[in-house]
Design a protein that fits this description.
Immunoglobulin-like, about 140 residues, alpha+beta, four-stranded antiparallel sheet
Length: about 140
Amino acid sequence: MGGAKESSGISRRKVAKSAAWSVPAVALAGGAPAASASPGCSVTVCDVCAVCVSATSVRLDFTVQNDSAEQVVTINSIKGPGASVWSGLPTQFTAPPGRSIGGVTVSVALAGDGAATITYSVCGQTRTASVDIRR
């Protein structure tokens, strides 16, 4: 009994060791794409203010907190209020490090007053913000 050998060349100990090493590798591989999408990028839009410049254009001022290097913020689309038609998009502004205000002037055929949803991209992520438009 004491001198019996295993019939296979692979022991349970080797299988257990291999499994223990493979679990962390799988966990790291699963987390890598999300982390690598925007390394070291931390930009937050704190507030958006709309100023009607004329009957056909609105200036959007973005208060931005940028805790990373200079970043470009791209305004992709604006929806609302109502059936308003926005043009001149996408457009961009640069957010320097720290707290700052960046703005863009956009052409619009306003369909009334109310809330508008802004879709923007920064740090490789697409986000939304709301702004109240009043003439």
